[in-house]
Amino acid sequence: MFYLGLLYRLREADVPVGPTEALNLAAALRAGAHDNSVRGFYYIARATMIHHEGHLDAFDRAFLAEYGNLDWDTELTEELREWLDEQAARLEEISETEAPDVQELLDMFEQRKAEQTERHDGGPYWIGTGGKSQLGQAGSASSGVSTGSSGGGRAAIRIADMRSYRPYRSDVTLDIRQLEVALRRLRAFVREGSQTELDIDATIDETARNAGEIEVVVRPPSRPNTHVILMSDVGGSMFPYTTLMSQVFSATQKATHFKELRTYYFHNCVYGKVYGTDRFTEPVWVHDLLRECGPHYKLIMVGDAFMAPYELGQAGPWSANDNSRVPGIEWLRILGDHFTDSCWLNPEPLSRWHGTTIEAIGEVIEMFPLTTEGLTEAMAHLNRGTPGRR
Amino acid sequence: MEFTGTDAYLTNPALDAAVRCALVLEKPLLVRGEPGTGKTLLAEAVSEALQLPLITWHVKSTTRAQEGLYHYDTVQRLYDSRFGDHDVRDIREYIHMGPLGQAFQSDQRVVLLIDEIDKADIEFPNDLLHELDRMRFVVTETGDEIAATQRPVVIITSNAEKELPDAFLRRCIFHFIDFPDRELMSRIVDVHHPDLDSALMEQALSAFFAVRGMDRIRKPPSTSELVDWIAMLQVAGIETVELTEATPFLGTLLKKEQDLQAFVNQVSGRRRF
């Protein structure tokens, strides 16, 4: 399939595409929805493969890398269409025989990719290009892939080239509303306690089913059942993220679906104590906190986790009456081990994580970037109910 | 079946292609975009262009998936049974189809609009997955199966601000309606303010897009803000606008304190260079 290169480029860019999308695109092509032009192909490929505006920019980049040197108005010739149809039909056949294994289908794709290169010299111009760049995509050098800068009036694929969807990339912006939505994922309700609430719907329903004999149904009231501890790094290297932090805090405070929310502050790393205010007053000993809060509390750490390695190894007192010295990383381990669900949200860009204390801390408490996607993943992680360690 | 917009509803090739995909693949078309970009109108336009009846389901914060399928009016049945003047033995008399049920039951292909799906509970879209996939459901009270003979053209709108579940997204054809470009925007403004001086229109549009393009603005102004702002300018009899700290009625465009501050910083900062 000539568009497999595109598919794999998208997968590499973490866009969720797979056999479903490939089959949809094949069916759309077979039905002629692409209007016989590369332009049309761009539009239908986008409509079938992309499901979120946050991925549009990745699609444009992938499309450029794959077909950047193509003419926007290239016609898909009859010969080419036949070939496409044949391919599409073959893929459809696969789907009609009883549900193929996903891996099997992917293997089939790989095989098709090999076929593609063989066909390329006889085939029309732009399939050839596609085939070639797929080769590059599959591992060998990606030479010959233009990035859409081929100049001239009708140069390449202009819309993709404009990359007008850059602002919608969900890994760059985070608004307070998005935060609230993400936090809503943490809610859980339970009905427990005495049955004090009249369940009107069920009562009516039961009564009607009972041919009119009144049947009263009562139930315990529904209450939120999520306990959350939010610990935030303040001061120093966190200064550039002050606005972001205040947003995280106001979104968390606004969340009405928590049964209990505790917020604490620390500087750089946790050493024995955390503080009730961002001016480091109202200290609370970590072991006191752990005694009060069972493992069912969900721990959210927010901070850049970026410090000199010695700071992580630096020791703090275990408690007021105990002078055994425990390094910062151990304190984090104590927190991570105590709570069933914990996560660390980090405002630093992912590119800065490698080889720093961020990585080291990430091994103790699962680390997520403080972006829409990262936050969503983090909340899903908290809901999984598995221990904090990978 | 081909859709290229109607007289009143202008489309672009991207939207046409998305509608075409939804039609040939018989999958729901999910339309997202900023408020005021004409998401809901799309369904009306498709219904008009293809001459298919339109069934609309306006989703509210309290809407549950079941309401879209059918409703068993137990209260009415109970009421009727008390007076004995109705035959209440047939439950089917008390089953009322919801928008989805109506669309499935229709002999003719219909356009089904599920409007503002993001307004309901987070799990709402997931509850509809199966029904939208198979286009059929069973009325549990009677055991009747309601199956679509003609798969309806399903158009779903959602606000760009809210996230939808992945499983749901992957079953839809997706189209994101872009924010209107300058040319389209001037046509939109023209609809609202037909007697606007063209020089002021140009200046206002330049200012508007300049503000939208600023980096640190959290809530960029949208169409309705622009229309309001121009109305204010007209009422006040202002003839020229320029983007400075003293731009009149800035509060109409930027509604957040932070954004106003960011704006002032950028405008005054620019002058230094």
In short:
The complex is a heterodimer of chains A (390) and B (273). Chain A has 390 residues and is an alpha/beta fold. Chain A has 16 helices and 13 strands.
Which descriptors apply to this entry?
heterodimer, A: alpha/beta, five-stranded parallel beta sheet, 16 helices, flat, B: about 270 residues, two-stranded antiparallel ribbon, 12 helices
Question: H/E series of chain B, N to C?
Answer: HEHEHEHEHEHEEEHEHHHHH
Q: Largest protein interface?
A: A-B, 42 and 35 residues
Quaternary organisation: heterodimer
Helical content of chain B stands at 40-55%
Strand order within the widest beta sheet of chain B = 2-5-8-1-9
Structural class of chain A: alpha/beta
Tell me the strand order in the biggest sheet of chain A: 6-5-9-12-13
Account of the protein in words:
The complex is a heterodimer of chains A (390) and B (273). Chain A is built from 16 helices and 13 strands. With 390 residues, chain A is of the alpha/beta class. In chain A, β7 and β8 (283-285) form a beta hairpin. Chain A is flat. Chain B has helices at residues 13-25, 39-50, 65-69, 74-83, 99-105, 124-134, 166-169, 182-192, 198-212, 223-235, 250-253, 257-272, and strands spanning 29-33, 54-58, 70-72, 95-97, 111-115, 136-139, 144-147, 153-159, 173-177. Chain B contains twelve helices and nine strands. Chain B has 273 residues and is of the alpha/beta class. In chain B, α8 (182-192) crosses α9.
